[in-house]
Amino acid sequence: MNTTLIAIGAGIAVLSALGAGIGIGIATGKATEAIARQPEADGKINKALILGCALAEATAIYGFVIAFLIIVMLK
């Protein structure tokens, strides 16, 4: 039973990567649309896109670290 709960907890923590991937995909699509509409603003758009992607990736990494800690510490 304990290993089942560990696996469920780790799986839920890793789901943050799914959210990060979806978020980065949406952000990239919106940035591409914005650059297509206003090409002169591509510098500002790219800066905001990179910052947003970095924050989304950080969330995915936090989820991975939490999942790793759940697996290692609760065994």
What would you say about this model in short?
This protein has 75 residues and is mainly α. Helices cover 91% and strands 0% of the residues.
Please tag this protein with its features.
mainly alpha, 91% helix, 2 helices, 75 residues, elongated
Sequence stretches where pLDDT stays below 50 over 5 or more residues: none
- Supply the number of structural domains: 1
Write down the secondary-structure element order: HH
Mean pLDDT: 88
Describe the structure.
The radius of gyration is 17 Å and the shape is elongated. It has 2 helices and no strands. The protein has a single domain (2-70), classed as F1FO ATP Synthase. The model has no long low-confidence stretch (mean pLDDT 88). It has 75 residues and is mainly α. The longest helix has 36 residues, at 2-37. Helix 1 packs antiparallel against helix 2 (42-73). The relative contact order is 0.21. 91% of the residues lie in helices and 0% in strands.
Break the fold down into its secondary structure elements and pairings.
Blueprint: H1 2-37, H2 42-73
Helix pairs in contact: 1-2
